[in-house]
Structures are given as structure tokens and as C-alpha cells.
Amino acid sequence: MRVSDSKAVSGPREDRERRRDTDKRTSIPTFYRQVVAELRKVVWPTQEQLVTYFFVVMVFVLVMIALVSALDLGFGKLVFWMFGGGGTQ
């Protein structure tokens, strides 16, 4: 079955009608109820999981700090070596 071009693509009138439905604003109480309903669906971590996640994140951050510091120190020494940063007068 072949669809004509006029049926396959929505025109400006259909776009306006579709936009009208999505442009309506939600009232503040409705928004609040929806937020509370979504927060009830959240699976909150236990205290044990939270402590574990905290230490995992801290170890990762410390490793990244060490890596960036080592690269900074290494590139700094390389630049001073290449351009003679310890000049004598």
C-alpha cells in the first residue's frame, strides 16, 4: 500500500495542534505531586552501600589527583629541561 505525500508528512496545521497540547503548563500542585510520586519510585541505597560508594569514589578521586599531579610534574620538568629554565647569569 502506498501513502501519498500529503498523508505522509504532517502539515503546519497538524504541527500547531500537536504543539498546543505540549505547550500547556502544569500547575504547581500537580508538579509537586508528580515529583513526590517519582521520588517514591527511587530505590534508595542502604547505609552500608552508601559507605561503600563513598570510599570507592574517594579512592578514585585520590588516584586521579595522583595521576594528574604526576603528569603535571613530569611535563613541567620536561618543559624546563627543553627550554633551559635554570638559566645562569
TrEMBL record:
Q: Which Gene3D superfamilies match?
A: Preprotein translocase secy subunit (1.20.5.1030)
Give its localization.
Answer: Cell membrane; Membrane
GO:BP terms for this protein?
intracellular protein transmembrane transport; protein secretion; protein targeting; protein transport by the Sec complex
Q: Where is the composition biased (Basic and acidic residues)?
A: 12-25
Q: Does the keyword Transmembrane apply?
A: yes
The answer to keyword DNA repair applying to this record is no
Can you tell me where the transmembrane regions are? Answer: 50-71
UniProt keyword annotations, A-Z: Cell membrane, Membrane, Protein transport, Translocation, Transmembrane, Transmembrane helix, Transport
Superkingdom of origin: Bacteria
Quaternary state and partners of this protein?
Answer: Component of the Sec protein translocase complex. Heterotrimer consisting of SecY, SecE and SecG subunits. The heterotrimers can form oligomers, although 1 heterotrimer is thought to be able to translocate proteins. Interacts with the ribosome. Interacts with SecDF, and other proteins may be involved. Interacts with SecA.
Record function comment: Essential subunit of the Sec protein translocation channel SecYEG. Clamps together the 2 halves of SecY. May contact the channel plug during translocation.
Q: Which family does it belong to?
A: Belongs to the SecE/SEC61-gamma family.
Q: Per its UniProt record, what NCBIfam families does this chain match?
A: secE_bact
Name used for this protein in its record: Protein translocase subunit SecE
Q: Which organism is it from?
A: Nocardioides agariphilus
